[in-house]
Amino acid sequence: MLAVPGKPFPKYEDIIINGDGLDDPEIKAVIDFESAEGEALLDYLQNNTGRVIDSPNVLLLIEDALLIEKDNDLDLSAWTDSGFEQYLVPLTSIIFDIWGSSQYMKIRTSALFKDMTNRLDNLIAGSDDQKMLLYSAHDATVGGMLHFLGIRDQTVAKSSYAASLNLELYENSEIEDDNEVKRIFQLLYFTSYVGENPVEINIADCQAPCPYKRFKINIKRKLIPDYGSACSL
């Protein structure tokens, strides 16, 4: 299980596979799976899906499959009437927040941002001329970035299909290099693949227009400096 390509991640293998437990306090705020109501819901979902629900990740998979059907204008099975909106949707949002704010995702997102800022630094230094880079990511990756940047309150916990977080660097050639506003940083959140009306994100601790140097200083405090000690058993 990798958080960084080519590097093992043994400390968090179980979390990657199963997620946190169903007894998490935030999950219990929606439904306590040890209560009669919770056990009845598990039995109901298991009987209708054929899945053994022993971890939050299974709930995510069920909700995801139903959401795909709904987004493609397919009729959901009758059994979903008493469980989809009332339980699965709010539970999925909570599970994504638990996942996105976890130490595991912080480590993964730290590695991702190191790569991003290194590429931007190379572009500024003139050692790279790549103007655009697209990272193929999952909704969980986007969720981790939202928590890492401290901007989760400006979006939803679970991003929609093909949503994207765009990091854009602007340079004003008329401003001297020693002026920090020569290069400013902007975050745009596209809520779907349509690409219309993106949400302009307010970057935490960096008032717009956010200087790139200040953004890097803020991010540096959050980066994981030593992957080996963070991930080893």
UniProtKB/TrEMBL annotation:
Keywords: Disulfide bond, Glycoprotein, Hydrolase, Signal. It catalyses: a phosphate monoester + H2O = an alcohol + phosphate. One of its GO terms (molecular function) is acid phosphatase activity. Transmembrane segments: none annotated. The keyword Disulfide bond applies. It is an enzyme of class 3 (hydrolase). Its EC number is 3.1.3.2. This is acid phosphatase. It comes from Hermetia illucens. The lineage of its organism: Eukaryota, Metazoa, Ecdysozoa, Arthropoda, Hexapoda.
